[in-house]
Amino acid sequence: MQVVMMAKPAIQFIQGTDEQTIPDVRLTKSRDGTNGMAIFSFDQPSVFDSSTELGDITGFYMIDDEGVLQSVDVSAKFVNGKPALIEAKYVMRTPREWDRFMRFMERYSQANGLQFVKK
């Protein structure tokens, strides 16, 4: 009998530290379906609480049992001098990258109780 360990899908800004805040995610896709972008918005992310002990934000990492999807397109918004929001963008340039991203999002949404709402 073979036992397979399934990693819980996670998002990280500092490698090794899972982000606890569930993001708002917006998706865009080209008309021909060859490329797209996912924009993640984290309101009051937990990484702000731990970044002083754990180090700097090094990127945006989406981790599941297939591996890691990553981006360095990460920006923080400040309100009254305090960090309030992180926005991360993940660009998909091929249908294969889009499909891989969608598999991650399906796993992540199931693990965190998210649902898709088309606008």
UniProtKB/TrEMBL annotation:
Keywords noted in UniProt: Chloroplast, Membrane, Photosynthesis, Photosystem II, Plastid, Thylakoid
Membrane topology term reads: Peripheral membrane protein
Q: Which InterPro entries match?
A: PSII_Psb28_class-1 (IPR005610)
What's one GO BP annotation on this UniProt entry?
photosynthesis
Q: Where in the cell is it found?
A: Plastid, Chloroplast thylakoid membrane
Record keyword Chaperone present:
no
Against HAMAP family, the record matches this protein to:
PSII_Psb28
What protein family is recorded? Belongs to the Psb28 family.
Q: What is this protein called?
A: Photosystem II reaction center Psb28 protein
Q: Which organism's genome codes for this protein?
A: Zizania palustris
